[in-house]
Design goal:
The chain has three domains: 104 residues, Beta-Lactamase; 76 residues; 156 residues, Heat Shock Protein 90. The chain contains nine helices and twelve strands. It has a five-stranded antiparallel β-sheet with strand order 2-1-5-4-3. The chain has a five-stranded mixed β-sheet with strand order 7-9-10-12-11, with helices on both faces. Strands 6-8 form a two-stranded antiparallel sheet. The longest helix is centred in the middle third of the chain and has 45 residues. Keywords: ATP-binding, Kinase, Nitrogen fixation, Nucleotide-binding, Phosphoprotein, Transferase, Two-component regulatory system.
Length: 355
């Protein structure tokens, strides 16, 4: 059997669903790129094998194929769980289409249920974050002008006051005005600085962040590299990406106080290439999947849905801007950032399109 991708079927690689074509003899004739990614097996490994072979519950798939060939239905949709030896079960929606002729293949189409939920959640979060950021920008501009007036008035008033005790009050006003000015500048900073685009090697970015972390936490913190060396360079703003990853990693390190003291703290930088993903409503053939994973206590449940909102912080004295800025920088690279957290495992996932 020719295991190269047939030209007539190559268009299936543009489809986001995992598509499997099953030949009349019950063997796999073709799988698209999304199916290779879902099953973690290549066309070369799958083609010519029985459709049931890759899965512990493959008999269920084989029975569906037989029913389709026997014309018991023309099209059937169901939810099932794909189980591969040694892998996490994958809940999917499966659509089985019967062959038009005895020589035609049965078409199996799989869509991860988690992926459907993720796309829906991503669209909702993107819209909500856009509104929040517009509100913050407008609020920052509204604060900026009167803040300058308050500071200037306090400076003019200070030399007119007769006693040092009274002048202390004006110094408090000036100090607090400066603090608020710094906060406003940080809120507006991502929208002022021009995008400095160049060729970016993501592993150089991660190595830079790793060196900064280890300099800040020389004892008790282990930063593990889990890199896919096949990740290609892409066009981006290196400084913004460093700042985005650093903000996430520093938040993780600050949450690992107890683990650092116990010499068990770990942050893992993981990179992979993923295929056929939807990011910000756009379909991309390839994308960078970057994870920052720590073994800390996890994000408090009441904060998990709000961690990317401006001025929301789970740490005493935190500004609540680190993750907001990280999200802004990643979105400027047409990417997304999400978080999955539970006690002992917090996983920030960054997806960025690749050329």
């Amino acid at each position: 059997m020719n295991l190269a991708r047939p030209a007539l079927l190559s268009g299936l690689d543009l489809v986001s669903s995992a598509v499997v074509l099953v030949a009349p003899d019950g063997t796999i004739h073709y799988v698209n790129a999304a199916a290779e990614s879902l099953f973690d097996l290549s066309l070369r490994q799958l083609a010519g094998g029985a459709v049931a072979a890759p899965f512990e519950n493959g008999a269920e798939l084989a029975e569906l194929v037989t029913e389709a060939r026997d014309n018991q239905f023309s099209r059937k949709r169901l939810e099932m769980v794909l189980r591969r030896p040694g892998r996490e079960p994958v809940p999917v929606t499966c659509v089985v289409t019967a062959p038009e002729t005895p020589e035609s293949p049965v078409v199996l189409e799989f869509q991860e249920i988690d992926q459907q939920l993720r796309v829906s959640r991503e669209e909702q979060l993107t819209a909500q974050n856009a509104m929040n950021k517009e509100l913050v920008r407008n609020l920052a501009h509204e604060i900026k002008n009167p803040l300058g007036g308050i500071r200037g008035a306090a400076q003019l008033l200070e030399p007119e006051l007769p006693s040092a005790d009274l002048r202390e009050y004006t110094r408090v006003i000036i100090k607090e005005a400066d603090r608020l000015q710094l906060l406003v500048d940080r809120l507006l900073a991502p929208h002022r600085r021009p995008h400095q685009v160049g060729d970016v090697n993501i592993h150089e970015v991660l190595e830079h962040v790793r060196s900064l972390l280890l300099a800040q936490y020389p004892h008790g913190l282990k930063v593990v590299r889990d890199y896919d060396v096949s990740v290609p360079e892409f066009r981006g703003d290196r400084e913004q990406l460093i700042q985005a990853v650093l903000n996430i990693a520093q938040n993780a390190a600050q949450a690992l106080t107890a683990e650092i003291a116990a010499q068990t703290a770990q942050i893992r930088f993981r990179t992979r290439v993923v295929r056929q993903v939807t990011i910000q409503k756009q379909r991309y053939r390839l994308a960078l999947d970057l994870r920052v994973i720590d073994n800390g206590p996890g994000i408090p449940e009441d904060l998990r849905d709000r961690i990317f909102y401006p001025l929301v912080s789970g740490r005493e004295g935190g500004s609540g801007l680190g993750l907001t800025l990280a999200q802004t920088f990643i979105e400027q690279h047409f990417g997304t950032i999400e978080c999955d957290s539970r006690p002992g495992h917090t996983d920030f996932q960054i997806l960025i399109p690749l050329p």
